[in-house]
Amino acid sequence: MSNITSPVIVGNNDFRFSAAAHWAQLPAGIGWRDVVAVSFASNHNVYVNNRGDREMIYFDADGNYLGDWGETDFVRPHGLTISRADEVYCTDDFGHTVTRYDLHGQITQQLGTRGVSSQTGAVDVDYRNIKHSAGPFNFPTNLAIADNGDLYITDGYGNARVHQFSPSGKLLNSWGNPGSGPGEFHVPHDIRICDQGMIWVADRENDRIQRFDPAGTYIDSITDLARPASLDFGREGEIYIFELGYQAGMFPGEVPPSDSASGGRLTILDHNLNMVCRIGGGEKSGSAGDFYAPHNVRVDHQGNLYLAEVVWAAGGREGRAPDGCSALQKLTRVIES
User: Fold this and answer.
1) 17 preceded by cis ω (within 30°)?
2) 19, 236, 250, 278: which has the fewest C-beta neighbours closer than 10 Å?
3) Is the dihedral of CA 298, 302, 305, 308 positive or negative?
4) 275-280 and 56-59: which strand pairing?
């Protein structure tokens, strides 16, 4: 039986979307608790990295199941980026590795040593235990690919750095230290590169996005955000920022900054960094177009959004997540005629 539900319209007059909370049509007997990341092959198939029965599943744009990688050996999937040449880069945070696959799941390159972390003082994903930065990797989070093929990797929960590698896997540069100053990080969680080569890093626990040149020189920060977990760029120069907020995924002992602090939400900025739309942010209801545990946002070639959430990891396992929370939503852009 199909799990498709009727979409709802969210957004405003400038950015309207039809939100489908259960877009992906999973085969019988296959499920997931958390979806960590989405990326797109050159044929526009949608690859979904998740923490479930099949950790890499791919669909067509309508959500029809096309296949999966079968049994995989991820310790814990976290990030996913597919290159223009259909090279699939997967970040395994608990494995302390970044691995390149072909579209069928065959390994072609691995960065880092499985199960071996760099020495930062951190032994778990709590960034507050980091004593100092170190080399790759200690719970890495995500990856972006520059036009020249260089790899930029955020590292991550147990480190406070961005590492730059050549396409062949040679470490070229690293920058960042634990802290809240310019060029410092408290959980660099996602990374993207814009057309001009500027590097954008979602510095989640500092409530900001930091921007750097390709050599790692700090440029500026974007603030007025609520724990930004991920970002991506739209076709009209807009920026989509998926914010975890303060209703889920808090580290032990931490509390929201205020009683009215935002929950999970999607913020849209124009090319001048003006906020033009916000979706969600209230008390999570479990409905389409609302969010509980934002983790990853990606924009396809048609300008549609795929929004992945770690509902179980951020509270579902403790019964805090409302019933019906979706781990993957698709927001289809509605263009008024």
Assistant:
1) no
2) 236
3) negative
4) unpaired
Report the 10 Å Cβ neighbour count for 177.
Answer: 14
Q: What is the 3-state secondary structure (H, E, C) of the chain?
A: CCCCCCCEEEECCCCEEEEECCCCECCCCCCEEEEEEEEECCCCCEEEEEEECCCEEEECCCCEEEEECCCCCCCCEEEEEECCCCCEEEEECCCCEEEEECCCCCEEEEECCCCCCCCCCCCCCCHHHCCCCCCCCCCEEEEEECCCCCEEEEECCCCCEEEEECCCCCEEEEECEECCCCCEECCEEEEEECCCCCEEEEEHHHCEEEEECCCCCEEEEECCCCCEEEEEECCCCCEEEEECCCCCCCCCCCCCCCCCCCCCEEEEECCCCCEEEEEECCCCCCCCCCCCCEEEEEECCCCCEEEEECCCCCCHHHCCCCCCCCCEEEEEEECCC
SS3 of 24-92: CECCCCCCEEEEEEEEECCCCCEEEEEEECCCEEEECCCCEEEEECCCCCCCCEEEEEECCCCCEEEEE
Question: What is the pTM (predicted TM-score) of this model?
Answer: 0.96
Q: What confidence score (pLDDT) does residue 150 get? A: 98
Q: What are phi and psi of 83, to 5 degrees?
A: -80, 170
Q: Does 151 have pLDDT greater than 90?
A: yes
**Rounded to 5°, angle at Cα 185 from 280 and 329:** 25
Nearest to 99 by CA among 61, 46, 136: 136
Q: Which residue has the tokens 């390994």?
A: 107
pLDDT at residue 3 greater than cutoff 60: no
List beta partners, residue 12: none
Q: Quote the CA–CA distance of 264 and 246 in Å, as a whole number.
A: 7
CB 308 within 8 A of CB 296: yes
Mean residue pLDDT across the chain? 94
